[in-house]
Please model this.
Amino acid sequence: MTIEDRDNAYLITHALATDTLSRLRDVETEQVAFRKGLVKLGRICGYEIIDGAMETEYVPVQTPLEETTGERVKGLDDVVIINVLRAATPFVEGLLKAFPRAKQGVISAGRDEEAGMTADGEFPITIDYVKLPEISPDDTVIVADPMLATGSTMVAVLDHVLAEADDFEDLFVLSAVSAPDGLVRVSEAVPEADLLTVAIDDRLDDEGFIVPGLGDAGDRAFRTV
Ligand SMILES: O=P(O)(O)OC[C@H]1O[C@H](OP(=O)(O)OP(=O)(O)O)[C@H](O)[C@@H]1O
Ligand SMILES: O=c1cc[nH]c(=O)[nH]1
Ligand SMILES: [Mg+2]
Model:
């Protein structure tokens, strides 16, 4: 297992995750490679969640030669993945390779960049669209967004999730890169969530970008700059 406990977050330290993230950070990585990198990182993170957080059970298996004992992951059908539009879309595509039968939700959320960051280090968040599946007590809920900067978006998203579901097996917030301030904001607002991230970076700049970070993930994946 390559998930390490770091105070209020769990770091996904798989070598392929850090390798992929390093390529995503590179300013020379162009749109297609960037998008594919997010897909790959989502798949690796999905496998790590399975390895680190899901139970297995022993089951009898009849091979073509004889009966033996196999080990299966429990609860693979009881997974809900919530895609925070838009940067999470390729990340979620990768996660779905690990959880192909997941129920999916979508929340469109955006920071009001023109309003800018408040003195408290938050952004006003606009939520345009919310469509969530039914969340059951047995479900592992994964809210995916590659960037956790001030945490304002994630807190707003989790408000919607928790308004519709208060009973679930686990609630994971999965990101590729997180800023320390964002991790603290989300863990204080939603203590029942476990925060999983591939990297915890140094700081936020005056515009609320993660430094060193990887820039604007949505713009790089969707080529809107
Ligand atoms: O932690 P925060 O300070 O809230 O910032 C993180 C958010 O910013 C990005 O989305 P953005 O608002 O750029 O929307 P986009 O995905 O459409 O580009 C990112 O994908 C997060 O959703
Ligand atoms: O650094 C950041 C902060 C918010 N959103 C991004 O895409 N990148
Ligand atoms: Mg963006």
Notes: The helical segments are 15-25, 31-53, 88-98, 152-164, 180-189, 217-222. The mean pLDDT is 96. The first strand starts at residue 3 and ends at 6.
